[in-house]
Amino acid sequence: MGFTLVEDAIIYACSLGLLAYGINLIYICTKTFNFAHACMATWGLYVIFSGVAIFGVNPYYFLPLTFLFGALLGVICYACINGPLLRRQAAAVTLMMSTLGYDLILYSSIQIYNDFLTYEFGLYPRMISMRMYDFIMGGVRAGTVIAIVLTAVTLIPLHLLISKTKLGIAIRATVENPSLATLSGVKPDKVYLTAWIIGGGLACLGGAMISMVLIGTPVMGWLIIISVFASSIVGGLNTIYGGIMGGLIIGLAEYLGSYLLTAPLGSWILQYKPVISLVAMSIALIAFPRGLVEIGGVPLAEKLKKLITPSKREEI
Amino acid sequence: MIPPVVYLILSVLAEFAIFSIVTLSLNLEVGHTGIAQFGRVLAVEVGAFTVGGLSSRLLALILGFPAGVEYADPLRNYAIVDEINKALSGNALGLSLGLSYFVISLVLAAIFGALVGWVTSRPAIRLREAYLGISLLAYGEMLMWIAYNYQPLVGGTIAVGVPDPLRIIQVKGGPYGGLYRYVTITFIMLAIALLTYFFVERLVKSQFGRTLKMHRDCEIAASAYGLDLVRTRTMSLIVGSTLAALSGALYVFYAGACNASAFTRLTWTFWPWAYMMLGGIGNNLGILAGVLIFLTVRVLIVQYRFDLAVALRLPFDPIWLEYTIAGLAVILIVLFKPHGLIPEKPVTTLPRDRIKRILKSVGERMEGR
Predict the structure, then answer these.
(1) Cβ contacts from A onto B, under 8 A
(2) Is ipTM > 0.90 here?
(3) Are residues A108 and B327, on separate chains, in Cβ contact within 8 Å?
(4) Using an 8 Å Cβ cutoff, are A20 and A247 in contact?
(5) Rounded CA gap, B270 and B36, in Å?
(6) What stretches of chain B adopt beta strand conformation (E)?
(7) Every domain of chain A and the residues it spans
(8) Are B316 and A272 in contact (CB < 8 Å)?
(9) Extents of the domains making up chain B
(10) Which one of B148, B320, B328 makes the best mutation probe of the A interface by having the most chain A beta carbons within 10 Å?
(11) Within 13 Å, how many C-alpha atoms sit on residue B57's CB side?
(12) H or E element that contains B351
């Protein structure tokens, strides 16, 4: 089934946004840069693949399940690895490396699961194309609509959670000053756990969505993760909205930017898609070492936050 | 017949030599200077591509073989390399040419490694922690991707062969020539690894090494004492990248070919990180121990995986257990032994007995007054 490049680009960019702001959320709350995002994303692919293989229905029905599965992976990571380290106040590099260990374990579990599917059910999950399950809905590709809606649907409750609820206040307090927040009676554990649940869920969801564009392999997560990191960094690690912004910039630059460059340069440029995103990242970092939000994203978000919750700030 | 265990031991020793150089260089930057170096693969690639893409072409040019775009053409490369190998192993002149080719390649790799170290130190001035680590990670990936897609560099998706300076051993050695060559290159690499170890050990005990540690332990205090932070960071990255580039060049000579897709961030950045964390961050002796232990387990799994699968009736390929074990090891070390197997000790710049002697002489002088 042929889908246009623009549709691919939109799905890809939105999925990158989902993955990147998951990373940012975990980073903001726990100061852990999550390397395991790569294999969490790959697990998202295999959750929907298994669903389709078992029930034979549309992969989009399994998106809530992928979120739950990702949340489970996040909880495991927090309970077994990240939590104890956070309690010990480990260094940032140590936290990063521990998630890398988790990533390797997840990778081997994906491969073992693939072997299991092959030996027990005769499936061939090592080279799959999920896009053949996509369909046209009212004249547009369903995937594009779902990608945009998912990004918005996950962002709005998260925004409400952070700006309206008590847990959100606790999250913001912990982010700004963990020790002061603890003194005021905020339990940081709850904040960390929430971050890992939402972040892990987003990782799986993003991985499932991105497999609608790419070829699904056990190393899919490892191939896309550099673009995801680039998105997070370009947007600025310290804000979740920056992750979405970075994802859209990097994703569209990779797909549409490389396509636009073929006219003056020739089709060879298409091979270098990831390089384009990395060059974009380098330029952005040289100009704005703390991410693009420096330009005005944070003040804008702060202003919006103040508009929404003018009185609550005084109550705290 | 040579028993297969000989090859097993040799492959462990060869990989130990290569990866101990990489991990020692990583330890210099991470363990001693405190830079989040997640782009170790970049300098290794630079060293490897120097041999695969530059010095081997220079040799071809000298010997009058095609050295341009056609050198990296997979259809012609092996024929050209074969001819060069014949020229190198023919007579004494060929042997001396081969050896000088080996040495010049290493020198060139070191120069380019130093250069790339300087280039990567530029973002390191402005960026910190996660930002810096991820940028370095991305640069390594960028070079690999370019080499993988741009065929004229090192053959793109297909490995490019490089002339073998030790081919003469294989040719003259008769039936066991291959083994003799393998043993020779392994011991050359081990010797270089040992030299690297002593070099790094001396370096961290020198004034420069103490500067690095001061930078790592407290940047504010270091700059308050007048230490040039940018210069320290730059020097550390240059020295580390030079060593890593050397190991990349050695790896290409060992493998006899340069394949862009072999230089993944997993093999050349994340495994060395795991070795370093197992051995003990900041301790060079611990690094050697960590590399040896980890490599032995990895090689044993790869070697005996089919026997393991049959014996345990595993419903999957046990090769994946390599990743499980590595991941578990990293997590367990981080959780329960954060300083590694051999923790870092305070470095004494002078031997202990000499310090005692100095103290004694100072005491005598004080008494004499």
Answers:
(1) 132
(2) no
(3) yes
(4) yes
(5) 12
(6) 160-161, 257-258
(7) 5-223
(8) no
(9) 4-263
(10) B320
(11) 19
(12) none
Contacts of A98 in chain B (CB under 8 A): 330-331, 334-335
Task: Identify which of A85, A107, A230 has the shortest CB distance to residue B323.
Answer: A107
What secondary structure letter does DSSP report for A137?
E
CA distance B367 to B369: 5
Closest CA to A90 of B197, B277, B341, B80: B277
Of B38, B127, B327, the CB nearest to A101: B327
Chain B CB within 8 Å of residue A115 CB = yes
Specify the pTM. Answer: 0.88
Report the distance separating Cα A83 and Cα A101, nearest Å.
15
Number of residues assigned to chain B: 369
Tokens describing residue B288:
């050697």
Give CA separation, A217 vs A101, A107, A212, B152, in Å.
20, 11, 12, 28
Q: Dig out the tokens for B255 from the structure.
A: 């493998």
Write out the two tokens for B194. Answer: 């040992």
Per residue of chain A (316 residues), give pLDDT as tens.
Answer: 456 788 888 899 999 999 998 999 899 888 888 999 999 999 999 999 998 888 888 888 888 999 999 999 999 999 999 989 988 888 888 888 899 999 999 999 999 999 888 888 888 888 888 877 877 777 778 888 888 888 888 888 888 888 888 888 888 888 778 788 888 888 888 888 989 999 999 999 999 999 888 888 999 999 898 889 888 888 888 777 888 888 988 888 888 888 888 878 777 777 788 887 788 787 777 777 666 665 554 555 565 555 555 444 444 3
Distance from the A16 Cα atom to the nearest Cα atom in chain B, whole angstroms:
16
Q: Is A299 helix (H, G, I), strand (E, B) or coil?
A: helix
Give the separation between CA A44 and CA A220, rounded to whole angstroms: 11
A119 to chain B, any CB pair closer than 8 A? The answer is: yes
Cβ–Cβ < 8 Å for A109, A121: no
* Environment class of A4 (CB within 10 Å of its CB; exposed 0-12, middle 13-18, buried 19+): exposed
State the residue for tokens 């393991």. Answer: B308
Helix (H) or strand (E) holding B308: helix B284-312
